[in-house]
Amino acid sequence: MQLSAGNLIWEWIDHWDDLPKHTDFAHHDFVIDKLGRIISGHPAGPKICIFNTDGKLLETFDVPVADTHGLWLADDDEHGEILYIADVAKKAGVRNGEQGKIVACTLQGKIIKMLTPDNIPDFNNDDWFSPTAIATDPRNGDVWVTDGYGTHKSYCFTKDFKWKLTIDGTDGAGKFNCPHWIYMDLRKDTPEVYVADRGSNRIQVYSTEGKFIKTFGEENFHQPSVFASFGEYMIIGELHARLIVLDKDDSVLGYLGDGQHLLERPGWPNRKDSEGNNVPPSDYEIGIFNSPHGLTADADGNLYIAEWVMGGRNTKLKRIS
Q1: How far is it, in rounded angstroms, from Cα 287 to Cα 71?
Q2: N or C: the chain end with fewer CB closer than 10 Å?
Q3: What is d(CA 291, CA 305) in angstroms, rounded to the nearest whole number?
């Protein structure tokens, strides 16, 4: 099965990884390290999984989180490549009674530092901090965190987790409504911060100084949830069952794997059994997405997609043109 957008063509590789079958609710992300290994959260517990490009599980390590919702890799002078994990402090939609946090660790699992609400000036402890994604600025190490499930704000910190600024959309296209993902876009000469304002079906773009630049997507996007990029292209994963391919100017080149018809099926993103219980889907269609949630791209434009669904579904789109 091949999918295309503009002049780009991919081959669909279904159920790409070799994780044993399970019925846990997958709610994780993908990133790629400098060795080309694919790093993911484990759907069944607080664990990081490292795969090769063929989906073979190479190693795992435990991490002190409730859920490995968002991942980001960055260089560190002392530790080399480090992994940032956004812990939303809930699993399968159930809060664990704690505040969320950002955990930074080595790729061997050594914890380096953590960011909590204590790092945010004037944080109201009656609020819930449930960060969903992280991005860093390669020029100075600034760490951007979006609190998609909690305060609906995005924060910028220094690499030492000292607060710098907060944005919430009010100076842009409108107050954020589930800013589910944040991304450092390096396709242009000057990096820009992209926020997936999921509940408002739009993308809001800011400078790294927190100044609003533009918004797009309100007319034709459906729950934009996650970003990846390669070369001059950006890929946006929509929870509502497709990927969007953008050019350098953020014009839409096409859509991949459009499965929006699946939203009408009882229990989506899962399915219902004869007794009305949620169960993993058994009606997946090759070339059709159900609920994209995690996404990464390598330099050649190969895409790795994790879906939000019981039992999990990890797909590779191998770029062939």
Answers
A1: 25
A2: C
A3: 10
**Number of residues in the chain:** 321
Computed on alpha carbons and rounded to an integer, the radius of gyration of the chain in Å comes to 18
**Residue 262 has what DSSP assignment?**
G
Average pLDDT of the residues of the chain = 96
- Both tokens assigned to 136: 């860093």
Side chain identity at residue 259, one-letter code: G
Residue 188 · residue 248 · CB < 8 Å: yes
The pTM score is 0.96
* pLDDT tens column, 229-258: 999 999 999 999 999 999 999 999 999 999
Q: What angle do CA 296, 301, 303 make, to 5 degrees?
A: 40
C-alpha to C-alpha distance for 86 and 159, rounded to whole angstroms: 15
DSSP letter at 198?
Answer: G
Burial of 188 (0-12, 13-18, 19+ CB in 10 A): exposed
- Spell out the domains of the chain, with CATH numbers in brackets: 2-24+121-319 (2.120.10.30)
- Which one-letter amino acid corresponds to residue 146? T
Beta carbons of 48 and 31 less than 8 angstroms apart: no
Nearest to 228 by CA among 237, 220, 219: 237
DSSP structure class, residue 118: G
Classify the phi-psi angles of 167: left when phi > 0, otherwise alpha if psi is within -120 to 50, otherwise beta.
beta
Interval 269-279 mean pLDDT:
96
- Give φ, ψ of 51 to 5 degrees: -115, 160
- How far apart (Å, rounded) are the C-alpha atoms in residues 107 and 187? 26
Burial 204-224 (b: 16+ CB within 10 A, else e): bbbebebeeeebbbeeebbbb
